[in-house]
Design a protein that fits this description.
It contains 14 helices and 26 strands. It has 476 residues and is an alpha+beta fold. It has helices at 49-63, 97-111, 115-119, 122-142, 193-196, 204-220, 228-232, 235-243, 266-269, 272-287, 295-306, 353-356, 391-395, 462-469; strands at residues 8-11, 16-18, 21-25, 29-33, 39-44, 75-81, 85-89, 94-96, 145-146, 155-158, 166-168, 175-176, 309-311, 318-320, 328-329, 336-337, 342-350, 366-376, 380-384, 398-405, 408-413, 417-423, 429-432, 436-438, 449-455, 471-475. Helix content is 29%, strand content 26%. The strands form seven sheets. The chain has a seven-stranded antiparallel beta sheet. A six-stranded antiparallel beta sheet has the order 18-17-26-25-22-23. A four-stranded antiparallel beta sheet has the order 19-20-21-24, with no helix packed on it. The model is unreliable at 355-363 (pLDDT under 50).
Length: 476
């Protein structure tokens, strides 16, 4: 924002804020940087007195809410002149997610290149960002709130692509359950069909839709409803139809009239589980909001997708591991690698004696799960003591790090953690107290290493420790 005579605003205590640069724009106002580091100001963009009165009531309510523990840049104090708004605090070093989208989208369109897609973090960072967004929204929903105006302009991420810090701004749209009247706030393209049509106010179900649209766009650089039909039709008319949910989504298997015409192929950036969630949301969920996947469901699927990524040693892009093959081929540059480049860790559940009597047909009295994590050269994975990808998994501390270098695996226990390692076909167990190396030539699919891990503090609870010992990771 250029400096003008009205580019200084004042809060109710008469503190002055100079609006230096516009950094975002949502459904009802603009967000600007100020002369103070880490301080942003949102200015309302309406002069409608009725709308202002409703917004004032909503802001007063927002200022009274306790939303501690969530990465939300909450309203701190109201701006009263020359226009209404509020002040919020945000950590330094963050930029709007919209900037990341625009940078790599321009490269894709102008140069038919995914160089910026990779340089802005590639698939791995995008999945990390979406996982953190999903977890924050899931916690918000669990407290009985909805966010209301999810869009890339309202989510800030680390400017440095090596990191994936996530914070929400524009939090004056938070609501409990569903609001009346002043409910239809959304950023064009991200609002749920029922909100766009004015049939329903924002709630957790409309948040689920907006999240899915944003996730799809961040991964593929396509809007899920702006395909061939929109490309060939009268722009404003068909775009409105798309936003109102009156067209099939671009990967609809029953109706290809609006099929994808650009961007990155969904098959390259979404595994089977993510594809099914997109389809569930945009097919049935288009007209039946209760069919949309919850944010907890999205979080579990995103964690699983992250854990099955490989980094290509040639082009540095990330892609999904084919668990049915030992050789992996990068879809972006066709570089192939074998098991010298990566290893799988699969979670198994050992049965106790009581369970075993009903499962005598199972070898070694354990069950293989679908929980697989991949580590490759130069990468690392962290493990928690709780069962993988459960609510406890996300809440407990990390206690084991697994890394890979030149084909060798390293297990590194964190402080106050107990980690045991053994061969599946032997009874001898070795407790890891420091960094432990497993050479590449010692890995064996027929006799894999098994790892158990838990926190020392839990040794006082024998039943809990025994439970954790039933969950093991096999290195294969």
């Amino acid at each position: 924002m250029n400096k003008k005579k009205n580019s200084i605003v004042y809060d109710k205590h008469n503190n002055a804020y100079e609006l230096i640069k516009r950094v975002g724009e949502g459904g009802q106002g603009i967000v600007c940087q100020t002369q103070h580091n880490g301080v942003l100001v949102k200015i309302l963009n309406t002069k409608n007195q009725s709308a202002i009165n409703r917004w004032q009531k909503q802001l007063d309510w927002s200022l009274r809410q306790d939303l501690s523990g969530l990465n939300l840049a909450l309203p701190k104090v109201q701006i009263v002149k020359p226009r209404l708004g509020y002040v919020m605090e945000l950590m330094d070093g963050l930029i709007p997610l919209q900037d990341v989208l625009e940078k790599s989208f321009s490269d894709l369109i102008d140069n038919q290149s995914i160089k910026q897609y990779i340089q802005t973090g590639g698939l791995k960072r995008r999945l990390q960002i979406l996982l953190k967004v999903a977890k924050t929204l899931a916690k918000l929903h669990s407290r009985g709130y909805a966010y209301g105006d999810i869009s890339p302009a309202n989510i800030f991420v680390s400017e440095d692509s090596r990191y994936s810090e996530v914070w929400f701004i524009d939090c004056d749209n938070l609501c409990v359950n569903e609001r009346e009247g002043f409910t239809h706030i959304y950023t064009p393209g991200y609002g749920a069909p029922e909100v766009v049509k004015g049939d329903m106010g924002v709630n957790a179900l409309t948040d689920q839709w907006s999240f899915a649209v944003m996730a799809f766009e961040l991964l593929t650089h396509q809007h899920p409803f702006k395909g061939l039909h929109v490309e060939d039709g009268e722009p404003e008319v068909v775009e409105e139809q798309a936003y109102r949910g009156e067209l099939p989504w671009i990967y609809d298997t029953d109706d290809e009239s609006n099929e994808s015409v650009g961007g990155i192929d969904l098959a390259l950036v979404a595994n089977e589980k993510l594809y099914k969630l997109f389809d569930q949301c945009f097919a049935k969920g288009r007209t039946q909001p209760f069919e949309r996947p919850s944010l907890n469901t999205w979080g579990a699927a995103l964690q699983e997708a992250l854990d099955r990524l490989l980094e290509c040693p040639t082009c540095s892009s990330h892609y999904f591991t084919n668990l049915k093959s030992d050789e992996q081929t990068c879809p972006f540059c066709s570089t192939s690698v074998g098991k010298e480049h990566y290893a799988l860790l699969r979670q198994v559940i050992y049965l106790n004696e009581e369970d075993s009597q009903y499962s005598s047909n199972l070898p070694d009295s354990y069950v293989e799960t679908d929980n697989v994590r991949v580590v490759s050269n130069g990468m690392s994975l962290t493990f928690n003591s709780a069962p993988y990808n459960t609510e406890l998994w996300f809440e407990t501390d990390e206690n084991l790090t697994v890394t890979m270098s030149e084909g060798d695996i390293y297990f590194i226990p964190e402080s106050q953690a107990v980690c045991n390692i053994s061969r599946k076909n032997t009874e001898q167990t070795h407790q890891i107290t420091r960094k432990q190396r497993i050479a590449a030539d010692r890995r064996s699919a027929s006799n894999p290493y098994e790892i158990t891990n838990w926190q020392k503090a839990d040794e006082t609870n024998a039943e809990f420790v025994d439970l954790l010992k039933t969950y093991r990771w096999q290195l294969v």
